[in-house]
């Protein structure tokens, strides 16, 4: 029986009792050690392997369990009009796991940095898992996945002296005009959310919803915090960082422990599934917002986080989200960035966590599942064992009671797509207009902070980079570009100062 105030007995992983956890086995009290000390060998070799590679981006994060409750849309316009996904069926409740993160720096970096915030949700639906791997800001820096490794390299610390440099960051950005809209968000107070509970979430990419007849609409997913939105000025963020660099993780964990469960309303925006030639931007372009007056936010449910992880490593570190993880009723759009992402996630997870990462409880579906996948490092169960199939049959098709294909309508056939194969840009790039609209939509305080932050960061850059950036801001809005130029002492040629 355990002593009062002391827990159950300690063992090795082999189940052997540990009777001395303070002293290694040695020849005499002064050593040397003996190799037969299995307890020490097991303990230290496991410790040596405690870390797995951290995520190449979004390494710092915090997460919680919760639920998604669809409420159906108001009036005669239910979400089921657009999608047959069971997760949206009124009256259901789906368990979720939501991981928030910062993007650029490592696993223990400060949570007060200017950075997008990850907002990744795993919905454990009755039809299998659905991952929505989003961010807090609703747009992104680039629209072609080929540019992603360069972008991340430029934003991460210098490969020689290991410091993040604004000169490298803006070197890349100044030659990627499509980033102007995202930069306008990021250097405003929206670039430092006060914590994870007071920020929005968005799927960012364009997806498709599929109805019972196989008809599709284009769709964006968004989340609005019921706690309200709160952002920080650079000064406020510095003050927090001086006393606590884990403030967002702490805020999330402590609020859930107190029983204050954070909630977000979930919305979709939809438009017909075509190219929309009437728009001066492309609905598949991830650098663009869908204006809410044209594409209203439709309420489809809410999420609540109500349980902290039992173990940070097992759940928060090893959870694996991916944009390829969709359920019936939700489909990919042709959005090139989405397609590029979809390869990257499971690829990195097979390396980062291991080939059987989907067997871990945090990643496995909660509905029945059965595959013929076998073996690989760390395999510890047979998917579907005990469901009545012949365990000798690890292949399909078979007449010997093996797993069989299910009778169900697959995803709808893709519309006929035709074009020349080649490295091509989308036609309606329109890189600056929405950045200008964003500038004009900001309050005076947000505009002042944006200019101060940009001038501060660009002051650390070469003149040629400053000029290119001012030129982009000028094309977004003359006042915007003019104020950044004035702050930097950059004189713009007349041609570039023109509308
Ligand atoms: C071509 C573009 C992109 C590529 C190639 C890419 C790739 C990656 C990779 C490799 C990871 C690490 C995953 C892991 O180790 O589990 C990751 C994490 C993440 N990415 Fe992306 N990403 C891209 C764009 C985006 C965009 C546009 C968003 C937001 C909508 C986003 C949101 C996230 C989030 C939230 C995580 C962290 C997920 C978690 O909490 O585990 N990424 N990304």
Automatic annotation (TrEMBL):
One Pfam family linked to the record: Catalase
Gene3D superfamilies: Catalase core domain
Region span, Disordered: 1-30
Cited SUPFAM superfamilies: Heme-dependent catalase-like (SSF56634)
Cofactor(s) annotated in UniProt: heme
CDD domains: catalase_clade_1 (cd08154)
EC number: 1.11.1.6
GO BP field: hydrogen peroxide catabolic process; response to hydrogen peroxide
Domain Catalase core positions: 11-404
Any one GO MF annotation of this record: metal ion binding
UniProt-annotated catalytic positions: 58, 135
Keyword Nucleotide-binding: no
GO cellular component: cytoplasm
PROSITE patterns: CATALASE_1 (PS00437), CATALASE_2 (PS00438), CATALASE_3 (PS51402)
UniProt similarity note: Belongs to the catalase family.
Function field: Decomposes hydrogen peroxide into water and oxygen; serves to protect cells from the toxic effects of hydrogen peroxide.
Name under which the protein is recorded: Catalase
Species, as recorded: Muricoccus roseus
């Amino acid at each position: 029986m355990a002593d009062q105030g002391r827990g159950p007995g300690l063992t090795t992983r082999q189940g052997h009792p540990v009777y001395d956890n303070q002293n290694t086995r040695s020849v005499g009290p002064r050593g040397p050690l003996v190799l037969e000390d299995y307890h020490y060998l097991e303990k230290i070799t496991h410790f040596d392997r405690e870390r797995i590679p951290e995520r190449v981006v979004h390494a710092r994060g915090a997460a919680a369990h919760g639920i998604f409750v669809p409420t159906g849309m108001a009036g005669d316009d239910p979400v089921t009009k657009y999608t047959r996904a069971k997760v949206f069926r009124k009256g259901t409740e789906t368990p979720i796991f939501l991981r928030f993160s910062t993007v650029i720096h490592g696993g223990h970096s400060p949570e007060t940095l200017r950075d997008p915030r990850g907002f990744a949700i795993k919905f454990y639906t009755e039809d299998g898992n659905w991952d929505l791997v989003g961010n807090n800001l609703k747009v992104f820096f680039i629209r072609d996945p080929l540019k992603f490794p360069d972008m991340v390299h430029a934003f991460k610390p210098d490969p020689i002296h290991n410091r993040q440099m604004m000169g490298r960051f803006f070197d890349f950005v100044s030659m990627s005009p499509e980033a102007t809209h995202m930069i306008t968000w990021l250097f405003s107070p929206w670039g430092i959310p006060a914590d994870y509970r007071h920020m929005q979430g968005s799927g960012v990419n364009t997806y498709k919803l599929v109805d019972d007849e196989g008809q599709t609409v284009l769709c964006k997913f968004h989340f609005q915090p019921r706690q309200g939105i709160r952002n920080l000025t650079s000064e406020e963020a510095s003050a927090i960082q001086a006393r606590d660099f884990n403030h967002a993780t702490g805020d999330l964990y402590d609020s859930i422990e107190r029983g204050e469960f954070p909630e977000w309303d979930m919305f979709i925006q939809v438009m017909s599934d075509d190219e929309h030639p009437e728009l001066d931007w492309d609905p598949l372009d991830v650098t663009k917002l869908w204006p809410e007056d044209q594409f209203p936010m439709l309420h489809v449910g809410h999420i609540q986080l109500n349980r902290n992880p039992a173990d940070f490593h097992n759940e928060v570190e090893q959870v694996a989200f991916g944009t390829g993880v969709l359920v019936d009723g939700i489909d990919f759009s042709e959005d090139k960035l989405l397609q590029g992402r979809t390869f990257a996630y499971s690829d990195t997870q097979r390396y980062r966590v291991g080939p059987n990462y989907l067997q871990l409880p945090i990643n496995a579906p909660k509905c029945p599942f059965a595959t013929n996948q076998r073996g690989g490092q760390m395999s510890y169960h047979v998917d579907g064992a005990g469901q009545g199939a012949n365990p000798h049959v690890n292949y399909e098709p078979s007449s010997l009671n093996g797993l069989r294909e299910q009778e169900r309508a697959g995803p709808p056939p893709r519309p006929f797509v035709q074009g020349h194969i080649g490295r091509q840009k989308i036609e309606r790039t329109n890189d600056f207009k929405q950045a200008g609209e964003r500038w004009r939509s900001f309050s005076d305080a947000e505009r002042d902070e944006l200019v101060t932050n940009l001038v501060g960061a660009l002051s650390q850059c070469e003149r040629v980079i400053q000029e290119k950036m001012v030129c982009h801001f000028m094309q977004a809005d003359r006042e915007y570009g003019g104020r950044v130029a004035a702050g930097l002492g950059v004189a713009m040629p007349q041609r570039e100062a023109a509308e």
